[in-house]
């Protein structure tokens, strides 16, 4: 019996995430083109670059940049939101989020009560509506992959300001590469 289970696990292919849209299936390893033709345009997307550096000798380093994209599909309130991650045009991950929203959903108020850490910008737009003001800047971080390789990630930081008028404080939502990472309260709102 143990040998049978061992054989099943050893011979089974590596796990690939997949999702169904429009009666067709997309899976990790598919191209952006395949996903677009099977699922259509996403509800929203964000992209950034990562630099992969590898030391091929103590004195020589090779670097290359890859484009990372996240596409968000909102299939409505009866299905889950799906977040698809691409690296250099190849689908590498499919995440399942909360239930989706009706296409005509009304934004909530105030935004801090509706938003959750890790929400995508598309989810925040659906939950809160468009911000009154946006600030965008670039930052970077480095992450060691192993002894010889490291990844430098260029981060797109966006701050969204929600102004509800003088009776309320301004909500400031901070995103890094399209994901909500911080919320804070600003000064008194204004007209």
What does this 3D model show about the protein?
The protein has 191 residues and is of the alpha+beta class. The chain has one domain (12-188). Helices cover 16% and strands 51% of the residues. Strands 3, 4, 5, 6, 7, 8, 9 and 10 form an eight-stranded antiparallel sheet that branches. Strands 1-2 form a two-stranded antiparallel sheet. It is flat, with a radius of gyration of 21 Å.
Shape: flat
What's the number of structural domains?
A: 1
Report the count of strand segments: 10
Helix coverage percent = 10-25%
Overall mean pLDDT stands at 86
Please identify the structural class as seen in this structure: alpha+beta
- Termini separation comes to 73 Å
Poorly predicted ranges: 1-13
How many helical stretches? 4
Strand content: over 45%
- Report the radius of gyration as a whole number of Å: 21 Å
Describe the main β-sheet briefly.
Answer: 8 strands, antiparallel
Order of helices and strands: HEEHEEEEHHEEEE
The protein's oligomeric status is single chain
